[in-house]
Automatic annotation (TrEMBL):
Location relative to the cell: Cytoplasm
Subunit structure: Monomer.
Enzyme Commission number(s) of this protein: 2.7.2.3
Name assigned to this protein: Phosphoglycerate kinase
Pathway(s) this gene product operates in, as recorded in its UniProt entry: Carbohydrate degradation; glycolysis; pyruvate from D-glyceraldehyde 3-phosphate: step 2/5
Keywords: ATP-binding, Cytoplasm, Glycolysis, Kinase, Nucleotide-binding, Transferase
Gene designation per UniProt: pgk
Coiled-coil segments on the chain, per record: none
Cited Pfam families: PGK
Main location: cytoplasm
Signal sequence extent: none
């Protein structure tokens, strides 16, 4: 695989697939620029070499073509500030305007194309659409690990039409750090799996049972495990049809000698809101009309101790509804513990994108762990052993 580090972009027009799917508020202001910051080294390397950059990305999930809410024009000013030059903008990602702006682009300049997903052909992996995109430049750089598990036109198919295919720094770092976890983990190795559904995490949990010493289960999926143990979960989120699956995971963990830890207690609420009445109950003893929204103090003590003794830590998914401040204590405590293990005990910590990345970044800890992944779904699929189309296209 060619990488940005060993490729000379002098005189090249690099079509760079980035993941600028950033959250915007009602005034179209970026509320979390983590994904943009991650791409800076790749873009700066191309410009420093004497190349020009044509940025391609999606934003949101537009249903019916161009939509103001999902226009990448809202990113032009922030990007111009980040790179210290006026970023040009094409109001379409293909067509005459895009072709002209691309042909006139000079070394050291940046052009941002409009949202790729304004065309249904992008997600369909349409070859003709990919060919039109490819015609705008002469080298394809894929730095969008967050979409590498999708066989879309810009993330995989474009590689067919450009002989120079290059992995960006983000893509390379994601793969390298995932491999470090999967193949070279120091012991004890602890995986922390949160989130609401077992069905979303079943494959990664099964893979990890062959690799980890400790598996910590938190978040909404714990209530399905509680059901499997015959516990009471009130009106907590659960997947009753996955109870047998939960039982089999418990049995597999035991058979493989993995220490599987679940909450000892939960913070429960009588309503799904930050201002709801709260109480702490033991696992499996949630009263009717109440729902679990966070892990309790006994659980925090247990999970923190396990994390503090670990040398490799993978964290994917929050411990509760961390968007509500009153139910963020468990997630924040895990973040604190992971940072402490990293800084004080030299542990390698990989934060697995999505809500876990948001939790770490919101706490101001993004630069105090070993690596924060930009791709939740892509990282999980890579760690499940699946072939990612965006990675395979670079290796072809």
């Amino acid at each position: 695989m060619q990488t940005v580090a060993n490729f000379n972009f002098s005189g090249k027009k690099a079509l760079v697939r980035v993941d600028f799917n950033v959250p915007l508020n009602e005034r179209y202001e970026i509320t979390d620029d983590t994904r943009i910051k991650a791409t800076i080294p790749t873009i700066q390397k191309i410009l420093k070499d004497g190349g020009s950059v044509i940025l391609m990305s999606h934003l949101g999930r537009p249903k019916d073509g161009p939509t103001e809410k999902y226009s990448l024009k809202h990113l032009v000013t922030p990007l111009s500030i980040v790179f210290g030059i006026k970023v040009k903008f094409a109001t379409d990602c293909i067509g005459e305007e895009a072709a002209q702006l691309a042909s006139e682009l000079q070394p050291g300049e940046i052009l941002l194309l409009e949202n790729l997903r304004f065309y249904k052909e992008e997600e369909k992996g349409d070859e003709e659409f990919a060919k039109k995109l490819a015609s705008l430049g002469n080298v394809w750089v894929n730095d969008a690990f967050g979409t590498a598990h999708r066989a879309h036109a810009s993330t995989a198919v474009m590689g067919k039409f450009l002989s120079d295919r290059v992995s960006g720094y983000v893509m390379q770092a994601e793969i390298d750090n995932a491999k470090k976890i999967l193949e070279f983990a120091d012991r004890p190795f602890t995986a922390i799996m949160g989130g609401s559904k077992i069905s979303d995490k079943i494959l990664i949990i099964e893979q990890l049972l062959d690799k980890v010493d400790n598996l910590i289960i938190g978040g909404g999926m714990t209530y399905t495990f509680s059901l499997a143990e015959g516990g009471k979960i009130g009106k907590s989120i659960s997947e009753p049809d996955k109870v047998d699956l939960a039982k089999s995971l418990l049995e597999k963990a035991k058979a493989k000698g993995v220490n599987l830890y679940m909450p000892l207690d939960n913070v429960v609420a009588d309503d799904f809101s930050n201002s709801a009445n709260r109480q702490i109950v033991d696992r499996g003893e949630i009263p009717d009309g109440w729902e679990g929204l966070d892990i309790g103090p006994k659980t925090i003590d247990l999970f923190t101790k396990i994390v503090s003794e670990s040398k490799t830590i993978l964290w994917n998914g929050p411990m509760g509804v961390f968007e509500f401040p009153n139910f963020a204590k468990g997630t924040n405590a895990i973040a604190d513990a992971v940072v402490k293990a990293t800084e004080e005990n030299g542990a390698f910590s990989l934060i697995g994108g999505g809500d876990s990345a948001s939790a770490i970044n919101n706490a101001g800890y993004g630069d105090r762990v070993s690596y924060v992944s930009t791709g939740g779904g892509a990282l999980l699929e890579y760690m499940e052993g699946k072939v990612l189309p965006g990675v395979a296209a670079l290796e072809a």
